[in-house]
Amino acid sequence: MQSKTKLNKIAGITALYCRLSRDEGADVESNSIVNQKRMLEKKAKEYGLTNTRCYVDDGYTGTNFNRPGFQQMLDDIEAGYITAVMVKDLSRLGRYAPEMGIYMDSYFPEHDVRFIAVNDMVDSAEGDNEIAPFKNVMNEMYARDISKKVRSAHRIRGNCGEPLGQPPYGYIKNPLNKKKWIIEPGAAEVVREIFKMCMEGKGNETIARILSERKILAPTAYWLDRGIKRGGKKIPKESWKWKCETVAKILSNQEYCGDVINFKTCSKNFRNKKRLENPEENWAIFKDVHEPIIDRSTFEQVQEMKAKTKRRAPKNNGGEKHLLSDYLYCGDCHSKLWYHTNTVNKEIHYFSCSNYAKDYRGTCPTRHYIRADAIEQVVMLEIRRLAEFLRDDEDSFVQILSDKTNGDIQKQQKYLKDEIDKAASRNEKVSGLYEKLFEDHAENKVSEEWFMHMSQKYETERLELKNKIGRLRKELAEADELKHGQEAFVKAVRRFLSVQTLTRPLLQELIDRIDVFETEGVGKSRTQRISIYYRFVGYIEIPEVPKRRHENYVVDTRQGVSVEYVPQIAAQATA
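Request: output the structure for the sequence above.
Response:
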């Protein structure tokens, strides 16, 4: 608390408040901070106010009073230091009429503070100024108009594909063209490593820990270290401390595919600058604008992995997820299988239904237990059988894929194209009705009330049709990608011929999910059905060829116990 001596020493200060917004337009030069200070210091001397102190807010809007310089001035007023406040004009103090009225009519008088707005000839020492409230309203209307123009220009630039935000970690602005992004090699390599670790099955927390242990600078520290200005970024306490949220944001950032995505956030109005999440249907996406750091196939695979992972991986087996985690599902209730370690024998790891009624208070009546080593070997052997079939008879293999998926794809494409044509036709018709309504209103053929009702109706329908057409086109593009997906699937199967072990990236390319059913039968005749569904093609039935003889696969899971796997229509493991 300030001593009385200190208070008396600095009491009687005249606050010279200066503010400049980024949206001042043509008034920037005349309203510059330097010019405001020079003018206010001169006028303060003319008023006989010699004990002055400047409070500055450079780059802050007048529609919001939560500004650092302004708030510091209020703190000093509350402490009793300030006896007068002087501004160049009313708009420098603020451009929101209701709050301006509160400060001028209530706050300053209650704290015995004299208020002077030089150019508007407002001086509270001379009594109330009847014109001031009208000027405050005009200043607010000016701010509203400027905001509307800025938003309009912002939207035009955004709809033309110009990046509206700062480049993400891994990119920098092109020195020769600030509207383009180029790859920053050091950060880009870290981004690639993050995606690689995710494809290997590592979670966000594990990735963040590994990066921190390697002493890799976190994005904010990285920008500061290289002198890259990023507004609003605070200096981190620990330069190498990575957060799970940072890793998650990088893994979900589509810009790494080379795309520009505008309008991901929005604000409510010109007074509230807080950024809010914008619905995805309102985004403007421009593909392949700059050089990608991550190929699109890898990015989409990571998004699929993240969509499947709804809970943190169990901390069994040293905290690492099992190779097949997120792929195994209950064949009956379709819930995920959870990975566990036997409490007695730590060497035994297994999966069981997460919806099991007895252990987890779910609804699935049976456990669907399966040993981790058994299912891993069964999956590897089945993929190898698939690869051998491709090697021995590639034409038949490709024909099976075509017969299985092309018919469904063509049917889906026809339906989507028909729906797009219908929506486009209706949109064109509504646009014509909209124009006719305006003509009738201009010629006074319809009432104002009817015009407002119908124009709102047509505008709403046009917006709905626009969103529908966009959604249908996206689905059509995804259907087209399925054909390319078949080619990628064949390449991945062929690659498996030269691989001796399963890897997370390979599984991500090949497998969509694996359904595990409950064991059936008793004794040595017990069987367990396992169905593998592959990416882009679903379940594949590989025909038996006379010249190629397959023996049943036998998996030794532990001493005295073996599992026999029979590759047939319903893939079975016999215990």
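The chain has 16 helices and 20 strands.
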